[in-house]
Design brief:
alpha/beta, binds magnesium ion, disordered C terminus, disordered N terminus, binds ligand C2E, EAL domain-containing protein, 13 helices, eight-stranded mixed barrel
Length: 292
């Protein structure tokens, strides 16, 4: 942290940075305990078919229920976990928790849809990665087609051969793979050819301000078009506005994920959404269909 906060910037923003630095140090220290004691929980955000409002999946998103700091979002602790090596343990916990929920929902006779599970490059490239990914599915008798791993393309630039190999092995077992944050990496098009993925997720960066200027529309349009030509599915992430939804529907975007349908919700509430199967779009800032 010393490098990041530096003496000069520390003096300029001393108040903010001292709290920020204190928080980061304390979180880094607490993370080991959090993993051991299981202080994490999952939220689930529905993924909806653009043309029919049908719920076809959900993304599992981790939160840390910290005893002092409260519910923390992944942006506040996953980079620490990347640095101190705990990310693999965390990602493995997430997969196990997703499988546990799928098993539970099956017993409750809820119609099952694939759950998207984020996986960092470090977890994905563990030496025993296949075994790590298959074991929880065996434990809970979950079919691999119910797991959709999301990989952030930009984080795999260095080990792309090994990544392509693991993706191919997972594909043979029936897992699905999506390229997350698509459009923000530096070698997206090259990796598209190398990686046997089924879905592209257009980054929120483009979708959030889609209609503010011609650039984001042009890029999004190009990604949708390319996905269709390559026979890939495409998901738009971060859709909040009805006009953006309509624009994406008109261009044949397959799936929508965003506050316009629902924020990430608890396991209990996503179960209700799965049981209903359909979600109506609501204005961002308006009343949510199911509360967080
Ligand atoms: P992501 O995989 O790109 O997930 C989408 C993020 O966009 C989520 O943030 C979600 O809450 C947010 N989002 C979705 N729709 C909207 C919208 O309409 N408006 C706005 N403002 N935001 C929206 P979240 O949950 O904070 O997660 C952030 C990132 O943390 C994720 O980005 C993912 O890269 C990472 N992450 C989350 N859970 C895990 C995990 O279990 N393992 C790993 N390795 N990474 C994770
Ligand atoms: Mg994701
Ligand atoms: Mg994303
Ligand atoms: Mg993201």
């Amino acid at each position: 942290y010393a490098i990041e906060s530096g003496v000069n910037s520390y003096m300029v923003h001393s108040k903010d940075l001292s709290l920020d630095t204190y928080k980061r140090i304390s979180l880094d220290r607490d993370l080991f305990k959090a993993v051991k004691e299981g202080q994490f929980e999952l939220k689930f955000q529905p993924i909806v078919e653009a043309d029919r409002n049908m719920v076809v999946g959900a993304e599992a998103l981790i939160r840390w229920n910290h005893p002092e700091w409260g519910l923390l979002s992944p942006d506040e602790f996953l980079n620490l976990a990347e640095m101190n090596g705990l990310i693999a343990d965390i990602d493995n916990w997430v997969l196990e928790e997703v499988c546990r929920n799928l098993d539970l929902w099956r017993r409750q006779k809820v119609p099952l849809v694939p759950i998207s599970v984020n996986r960092s490059a470090k977890s994905f490239l563990q030496f025993d990665t296949l075994e790590r990914m298959i074991t929880p599915l065996r434990t809970y008798n979950v079919d691999p087609s119910l797991i959709n791993f999301e990989l952030t393309e930009s984080s795999f630039v260095e080990n792309s051969d090994r990544v392509a190999e693991v993706i191919a092995q997972l594909g043979e077992k029936g897992f699905r793979i999506a390229l997350d944050d698509f459009g923000t990496g530096f070698s997206s098009l090259f990796h598209l050819k190398e990686f046997q993925v089924q879905t592209l997720k257009i980054d929120r960066e483009f979708i959030g301000s889609l209609l503010d200027g011609p650039e984001n529309m042009a890029i999004t349009n190009a990604i949708i078009q390319m996905a269709q030509d390559l026979d890939l599915k495409v998901t738009a992430e971060g859709v909040e506005e009805p006009v953006a939804l309509r624009w994406l529907q008109e261009r044949g975007c397959d799936y929508i994920q965003g506050y316009i349908y629902s924020k990430p919700v608890s396991a209990e509430n996503i179960r209700k959404i799965f049981a209903k199967r359909v979600l109506k779009p609501v204005y961002a800032g308006g009343q949510l269909v199911v509360e967080n």
